[in-house]
Amino acid sequence: MSNLQANKISKIFKDNKAFIAFLTAGDPSLDKTEEFILAIEKAGADLVEIGIPFSDPIAEGPVIQEANERALSVGTTTDKIFMMVRRVRQKTAIPLVFLTYINPIFVYGIDRFFKACQESGINGIIIPDLPFEEKGEVLDVAKTYGVDVITLIAPTSKDRIQTLAKEATGFIYLVSSMGVTGVRSEIKTDLKSMIDDIRQVSDTPVAVGFGISDPDQAKAIAKIANGVIVGSAIVKIIAEYGDNASDSLYNYVKSMKKAIS
């Protein structure tokens, strides 16, 4: 099962440009998160990133911070999220990736956490605050359970882009802009030269995230990258419509997927 699980992620980039959607587990409830994942998949998303809510999400802007607060306030826990993922897995085979900070994994227990990932059907994980130099411990355990640890490459990584890219599996999460997550009207980073650097050492697919919110931005990014990641714009829709967000999410994701196809 382990290799099959890990290889699932890179497969989504094979024949098309991938649309990757992010939402926060438990916002506004775990039942709704389950419903929203299925709506997003139906609209054409190729992979869903599920944020595990955390009280101190340092990489997140206000939109996702507030989603974390809403999720925690209704009693969302890691155990309950695993149960929700199991239910989702009975209805869809779409690749699912957790986004979480290192602290919740340590608190849960590294081995126990990744074993639960495998058993519930999580294919990969993104850990924004895990330093490259310290990822060995997590990487080995994740590998044992067939979970890809997704490499993040930021504009500040300049001298280390190739070091980071060489070992990447699943896909590379290329951070479009400095600072925290959030919708941006303009992305000024020279993403093309960063992708060129990556390509010299790795053919792992590259998906760009942070700040992408409208179809024109997505279309422009898809010309140079293998995929587009959208988080804050989706979380904003959930904040606005709450329990009734499914239709709006479906329409939004559909328009974004169409823009990059």
Structure notes:
The structure is a single chain. With 261 residues, the chain is an alpha/beta fold. The chain has one domain: Alpha-Beta Barrel (TIM Barrel). It is built from 12 helices and 9 strands. It has helices at 2-11, 30-42, 62-73, 78-89, 102-108, 110-120, 136-144, 161-166, 191-199, 215-224, 232-241, 246-260; strands spanning 18-24, 47-51, 96-99, 124-126, 148-149, 151-153, 172-175, 206-209, 227-230. Strands 5-4-3-2-1-9-8-7-6 form a 9-stranded parallel beta sheet. It is globular, with a radius of gyration of 17 Å. It starts with a helix and ends with a helix. The model has no long low-confidence stretch (mean pLDDT 91).
The count of strands amounts to: 9
CATH superfamily: Aldolase class I
* Structural class based on helices, strands and sheet pairing: alpha/beta
Portion in beta strands = 5-15%
Q: Mind describing the biggest β-sheet?
A: 9 strands, parallel
What's the total helix number?
12
GO molecular function: tryptophan synthase activity
Active site: 49, 60
Catalytic activity: (1S,2R)-1-C-(indol-3-yl)glycerol 3-phosphate + L-serine = D-glyceraldehyde 3-phosphate + L-tryptophan + H2O
Transmembrane segments: 92-110
Topology:
Elements: H1 2-11, E1 18-24, H2 30-42, E2 47-51, H3 62-73, H4 78-89, E3 96-99, H5 102-108, H6 110-120, E4 124-126, H7 136-144, E5 148-149, E6 151-153, H8 161-166, E7 172-175, H9 191-199, E8 206-209, H10 215-224, E9 227-230, H11 232-241, H12 246-260
Parallel strand pairs: 1-2, 1-9, 2-3, 3-4, 4-5, 6-7, 7-8, 8-9
Helix pairs in contact: 2-4, 2-12, 4-6, 10-12, 11-12
